[in-house]
DNA sequence: TTGAAAGCGCTAACAT
DNA sequence: ATGTTAGCGCTTTCAA
């Protein structure tokens, strides 16, 4: 393996100069840089990240902690983050918790990340106080995506508002019995969105004078299967809701399925709206409140990289806009 | 930052012994190991992967090169691989090409990976001869998933057979005008599955005496949108096919959509079958040839780790079984 | 603009 | 079972 030393010998210069030339630092004459680059190429020089990391304390690697890569939403954020990291020459270390508490424990509790990454991106997880403490002690930039964590750098949408938009859309269509399918407001993969969305739903309903009814609120675990189960329950009782607001498109898709199973037509018999604008949403004709998923990944990555370079940077809370996308699963209430 | 040296000083032993104790090597008395562990914990010792990597030449990191994480199929494989890597204490470096030729170039051409990872997993990509050459010169275990590359360690399904199963299912239902939606057999994100599946389709048709008709073969680019476009075309002509076999579930979902747009009922007017058993397949009632996606990731990861530890290991070609899953998008031909 | 030299934190070969 | 001793390949003062 040819090292910086071989190149130095080849161009008859010190390794220090070669290192500087290779990294594009200033204070190297153009002629020298040219000779170094040429020699490096000719000798097939490949830098050693381990050696650079050991010497500089920087790894040019960012950890991304994700609840489940198999969920389109998370994968899209990862993709966004990867793009900007790659552009800037950073590598992405993926930690997929996949609903596994021990995986979560391993990533947060052991100081696994300490000397391994320059920054951390946490997706849609609400770290516990203890976990936050460990993240803080990493002494590295951390950005949290999709959760509201005051004092931390975050990138998210206004979940309360998004839920409000969805609920209001149904109200505007004349619906009054509006069910809500959400998710546990705490647990292994908890984040702050579920509670904010639930609150947005309740608030908006209350403004109409209609008090939220507990029997209209169900847990769909933010999965298609969960949404299916929840909607089955909601729709099979007597006095069923005329509309369902699911806090995620996947749950909404489950709800569509439940309606179909029960012989209910959408939107004639029941309207359904979700949040996300999932890649499959348009194929289900799903009305939804779209959020810029991919973009959240890009912004978060940009943010940690800025923290890494800017001398005095301080945590920022970015809130990205959402937009109501009306398709064909919501319609005027039939009287 | 406390290092191995601090622990050595604390327990009054050499760094070599501490290193051995920490790594669980044999040749360390139980008493010593205990004291070292206790001291390490007490001092808040965190190992430095860079230092270990530099000294040992091993990074305990595996690169996973994926066409697009946002596609469920790839994400599921990544998840499978991540599980076994994590169990064994390896980290996963994600390289997402996302249809970007320059990203592909960057990963393969520059020797980015050389001193960075211990092994490489390549998903559903057919490396060019030049790329294969570079992979080979990494001198590291490489496993290719979803492509048929003789001489290399691979994990995949029998694509020819899977396509045959799907086609035969349609034939068994009485269909004769069976269209095929596949994907380019070369390009930036090419792999060997498209051609094998096309061949399986053609072969099976030929056995019935029906020569494959070029006008029944379309390109759906392995995406929902592509499948939609292709099926629109196929279904709007005169003498339209009575069944469509899409080489992936996503394209099949697009085909379902096209049928719906054109006012055709599935399966009464047209049968549709896919390959994969995508997580959304059951919600579309899609008949498909299921493949063990997650498992392919696990097997591939297990394979490279074995290559890393076994003294004399040689590349193996693992073929995982597929299974016809009949749902409600295929039915007997109506005469 | 360049060089000398120390050292980042660990592993591994060789001793004992 | 434990210690000694070289590095691994790079970055980073400090000097020139």
UniProtKB/TrEMBL annotation, chains A, B:
Q: Which stretches make up the HTH lacI-type domain?
A: 2-56
Keywords in alphabetical order, please: DNA-binding, Transcription, Transcription regulation
Q: Which Pfam families match?
A: LacI (PF00356), Peripla_BP_3 (PF13377)
- Keyword Transferase assigned to the entry: answer is no
The record's section on PROSITE patterns has: HTH_LACI_2
Recorded hits in InterPro entries, A to Z, give: HTH_LacI (IPR000843), LacI/GalR-like_sensor (IPR046335), Lambda_DNA-bd_dom_sf (IPR010982), Peripla_BP_I (IPR028082)
SMART domains attached to this UniProt entry: HTH_LACI
Q: Does the keyword Transport apply?
A: no
User: What GO molecular functions are on record for this protein?
Assistant: DNA binding
Q: What is the protein's given name?
A: LacI family DNA-binding transcriptional regulator
Species in which this protein is naturally found: Nocardioides conyzicola
């Amino acid at each position: 393996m040819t090292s910086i030393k071989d190149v130095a010998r080849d161009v008859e210069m010190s390794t220090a100069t070669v290192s500087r030339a290779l990294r594009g630092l200033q204070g190297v004459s153009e002629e020298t840089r040219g000779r170094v680059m040429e020699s490096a190429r000719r000798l097939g020089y490949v830098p050693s990240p381990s050696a650079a990391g050991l010497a500089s304390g920087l790894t040019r690697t960012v950890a991304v902690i994700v609840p489940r890569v198999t969920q389109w939403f998370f994968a899209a954020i990862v993709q966004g983050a990867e793009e900007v990291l790659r552009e800037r020459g950073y590598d992405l270390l993926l930690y997929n918790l996949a609903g596994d508490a021990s995986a979560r424990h391993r990533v947060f509790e052991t100081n696994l990340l300490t000397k391994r990454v320059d920054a951390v991106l946490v997706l849609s997880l609400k770290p516990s106080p203890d976990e936050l403490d460990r993240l803080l002690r990493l002494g590295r930039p951390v950005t949290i995506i999709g959760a509201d964590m005051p004092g931390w750098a975050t990138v998210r949408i206004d979940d309360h508002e998004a839920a409000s938009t969805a609920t209001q859309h149904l109200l505007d269509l004349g619906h009054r019995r509006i069910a809500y399918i959400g998710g546990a407001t705490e647990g292994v993969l908890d984040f702050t969105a579920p509670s904010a969305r639930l609150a947005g739903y309740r608030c908006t309903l209350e403004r109409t004078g209609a008090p939220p009814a507990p029997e209209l609120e169900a847990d769909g675990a933010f999965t298609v299967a969960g949404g299916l189960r929840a909607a089955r329950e909601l729709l099979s009782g007597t006095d069923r809701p005329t509309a369902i607001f699911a806090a995620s498109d996947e749950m909404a898709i489950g709800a569509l399925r439940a309606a179909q199973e029960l012989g209910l037509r959408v939107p004639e018999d029941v309207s359904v709206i979700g949040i996300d604008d999932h890649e499959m949403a348009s194929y289900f004709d799903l009305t939804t409140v779209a959020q810029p998923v991919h973009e959240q990944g890009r912004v978060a990555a940009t943010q940690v990289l800025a923290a890494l370079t800017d001398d005095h940077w301080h945590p920022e809370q970015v809130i990205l806009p959402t937009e109501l996308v009306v398709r064909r699963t919501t319609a005027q209430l039939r009287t």
